[in-house]
User: Which sequence fits this backbone?
């Protein structure tokens, strides 16, 4: 994971970085790393960005080197989609939101309980 992406997302979650900056950094990192298979982790963030406002960023060719440059488009990132962007950023960073940690423990406990039950049934069936 790129440190610039991590720093930008952490700043966004903390409220220090605007959504427009997140969009630019994530989009640039995604398209830069996509060919090498390393952009897959950023795909959920890109999905939110593209769903919320296509045209927020523009890809433009660069005359000095092969590839492209990412520029912010004329349209700002919609405020009503910032909660979804924040959730995707938290998921990318592995940050639990309020209540998620308890829910995750319940799911893990349920899985363990089912596994124990299956093992007990196997033991009792073979006896």
Assistant:
């Amino acid at each position: 994971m790129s440190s610039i992406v991590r720093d930008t997302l952490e700043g966004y979650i903390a409220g220090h970085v605007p959504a427009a900056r997140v969009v630019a950094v994530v989009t640039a990192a995604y398209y830069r790393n996509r060919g090498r298979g390393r952009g897959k982790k950023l795909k959920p963030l890109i999905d939110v960005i593209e769903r919320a406002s296509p045209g927020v960023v523009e890809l433009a060719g660069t005359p000095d080197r092969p590839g492209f440059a990412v520029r912010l488009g004329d349209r700002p990132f919609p405020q009503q989609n910032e909660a979804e962007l924040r959730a995707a950023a938290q998921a990318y960073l592995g940050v639990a939101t309020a209540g998620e940690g308890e829910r995750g423990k319940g799911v893990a406990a349920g899985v363990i309980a089912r596994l124990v039950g299956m093992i007990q049934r196997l033991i009792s069936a073979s006896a």
